[in-house]
Design brief:
heterodimer; A: MetI-like fold; 8 helices; 81% helix; B: alpha/beta; Rossmann fold; CBS-domain; 2 domains; 4-stranded antiparallel sheet; 15 helices; ABC_transp_perm/SBD (chain A); transmembrane helix (chain A)
Chain lengths: 215, 413
């Protein structure tokens, strides 16, 4: 069976897997962004806290993905919970680091001005600091998404959703007629998804970065 | 809309001590600032003038001491509420780059809960006030403005919610000298209209003289070396620190303090461009005292100086007769500007114009000299006495410098 014939015959299953992969990465990124920006906001003013945040999220990233999911299984069981936990943890580093860099990069004179005209600390953060730090944060989110897209394939190991299942099936039956097609279909699906996500981020940037600070 | 005029500011033993340093950054500043007064803090960098300013709106919390604004003790008030009642303008404008000009100006009025329509009207009013066309500038982003325009918007934002007090932290420090001069003139005009209480920090003594009703010369730890009117500081510096800060040429700087409208602006015989040629001829013949006429254009602005005989030589053509008017000064110009113009004019006089450039009179060398003499005569004694002290102090210093200069080439060789 040629690759195209394989795609035609299995397109339903492939579409479901692709949808699940996209949905998984999207949801994990929403979580990672919320947590990551929160960590950034809480830590960027204090040197030790910022160092701690960046170092610990960087440490998470050095754990091999297979090992991390494996370690989470006895704890959280199979399926979605360990997958989402692992992916969210992996997505944190770029978001946290860029949030800290972005927030620290805001001109102190502007923060001074914001406080000086009567903004509370929260208002200054929400209306001045975060909007100005948004472009680097968005870059962090973009990098994290690309990374998660690949790592998410490992989720199949824990019976998680996504295109990883296709790849794992192929690897498990190496030598059989459709093995190569399965691996190829899963891999290409992931690459195409990654490109689509990236295009969405470019669009999101155009829509959310104010004209006054667009490069 | 009625403009609230300024409120008094009283500082009482205001002190700032940073943890871990033995000396306080600001050491017991006490000062009373009248309502509607412009007070300038001037001093070398690092003298704590900015810290003192920031303690007034409590961007820096004082370690001890008391701040009263309009008689009300604000030392322990909610700082966010306090700051909404105090305008704040800083160096390089502090405009938020991700917001348009209108959004920047609208910030404080919105925060204090003005209605949408009122905020929109106010934004237009403020842009008009600082001399920017609302239609053109409302929707622009700060990076699309020049430095001077940004600074104007910064001032508009500081004044938007009509605060009685305005704090300005070296607001014109980052713009070029010509723009700075314009901005200073503009601030003087604004203050004539608004009568806010302004506290202004600068390290430029000339700026202080130009803008201040009173100047506080600060030395390290914000100790007040002298707090007085510009005239008094120029002619009677309290000590060597102050006179060092005043710098050379106090008499010339004194000219910056008096404006053309304060000295006699003399009348001058004029004719208008649209007068019949014959009557201009007659007037020239009649003019006995000066044998000169000033020809005004159709809008009453000075155009040409006409001497007797000029018209004859030009065969009756007004277009060719006479000499074009070069520099003019406004009634708000300083005597220094007027002197400059008179010195460069070949006949030693300069036309004074009103707001729209229309002719209002003439200032000549004689008027200027007389008024300068009067000004200086008032202060001469004090100045002389002071100069004597200063020379005694400087003599050993100069000698030391010369010796140092003698040594240098030897060392290099």
């Amino acid at each position: 069976m040629s690759f195209w014939e394989y795609l035609a015959s299995r397109h339903e299953q492939l579409l479901i897997d692709t949808y699940q992969q996209a949905s998984l990465v999207f949801q994990c990124m929403v979580l990672a962004t919320a947590i990551g920006v929160a960590i950034g906001v809480l830590s960027y003013r204090r040197d030790w806290a910022a160092t701690l945040a960046v170092t610990s999220t960087a440490t998470v990233l050095t754990i091999p993905s297979l090992a991390l999911i494996g370690l989470l299984i006895p704890w959280l069981g199979l399926g979605v919970p360990p997958t989402v936990t692992a992916l969210t943890l992996y997505g944190l580093l770029p978001v946290v680091r860029n949030a800290i860099v972005g927030l620290r990069g805001v001109d102190p004179a502007l923060v001074d001005a914001a406080r000086g005209i009567g903004m509370s600390r929260t208002a200054a953060l929400a209306r001045v600091e975060l909007p100005l730090a948004w472009p680097p944060i968005l870059t962090g989110i973009r990098v994290a998404t690309q990374m998660l897209m690949g790592i998410a394939a490992i989720a199949a190991y824990a019976s998680g959703p996504g295109l990883g299942n296709e790849i794992f099936r192929g690897i498990a039956s190496l030598g059989s007629a459709n093995a190569l097609n399965q691996v190829l279909a899963g891999t290409i699906g992931i690459v195409v998804l990654a490109l689509l996500f990236d295009a969405c981020y470019v669009l999101l940037g155009r829509l959310t970065i104010p004209r006054g600070i667009r490069g | 809309m009625a403009e609230a005029s300024g409120a008094t500011i009283e500082l009482e033993q205001l002190t700032k001590r940073y943890p871990g340093s033995a000396e306080p950054a600001v050491d017991g500043v006490s000062m009373e600032i009248g309502a509607g007064e412009t007070v300038i803090f001037v001093g070398p960098s690092g003298c704590g003038k900015s810290t003192t300013l920031k303690m007034i709106n409590r961007l820096i919390e004082p370690t001890s001491g008391r701040i009263r604004i309009g008689g009300e003790d604000v030392t322990h008030m909610d700082p966010v509420k306090l700051r909404r009642k105090i305008g704040y303008a800083i160096q390089s404008s502090g405009l938020f780059p991700h917001m348009t000009v209108a959004e920047n100006i609208a910030l404080v009025p919105r925060m204090v809960g003005w209605s949408r329509a009122r905020v929109r009207d106010r934004v237009e009013e403020m842009l008009d006030l600082v001399g920017l066309d609302p239609r053109e500038f409302r929707g622009r982003y700060p990076r699309q403005l020049s430095g001077g325009q940004q600074q104007r918007v910064g001032v508009a934002r500081a004044l938007a919610a009509d605060p009685p007090v305005l704090l300005m932290d070296e607001p014109f420090g980052a713009v070029d000298p010509i723009t700075r001069d314009h901005l200073q003139d503009e601030l003087i005009r604004l203050q004539h209209e608004l009568h806010k209480t302004i506290v202004f920090v600068t390290h430029d003594f000339d700026e202080a003289i130009k803008l201040g009703d009173r100047i506080a010369v600060l030395r390290e730890r914000s100790h007040i070396a002298q707090f007085d009117t510009p005239e008094a500081i120029l002619t009677n510096p309290a000590d060597d620190f102050v006179s060092g800060f005043v710098g050379a040429g106090a008499a010339l700087k004194r000219l910056n303090l008096t404006r053309v409208r304060d000295v006699g602006v003399a009348d001058f015989p004029t004719v208008r461009l649209d007068d019949p040629l014959q009557s201009i001829f007659d007037r020239l013949r009649e003019a006995t005292t000066t044998n000169e006429l000033l020809l005004l254009d159709r809008r009453g602005r000075p155009y040409k100086w006409l001497r007797r005989g000029d018209l004859m030589r030009a065969k009756g053509s007004l277009a060719r007769a006479g000499t074009l008017v070069g520099d003019t000064v406004t009634r708000d110009a300083t005597l220094r500007d007027a002197l400059e113009a008179v010195l460069t004019d070949s006949s030693g006089r300069v036309a004074v114009t009103g707001r729209r450039g229309e002719f209002t009179g003439v200032v000549d060398m004689e008027t200027l000299l007389n008024s300068v003499h009067e000004l200086l005569e008032e202060d001469r004694l004090a100045a002389l006495e002071h100069r004597h002290d200063l020379e005694e102090l400087r003599a050993p210093q100069t000698r030391a410098e010369q010796e140092g200069a003698d040594h240098e080439p030897g060392e290099r060789a």
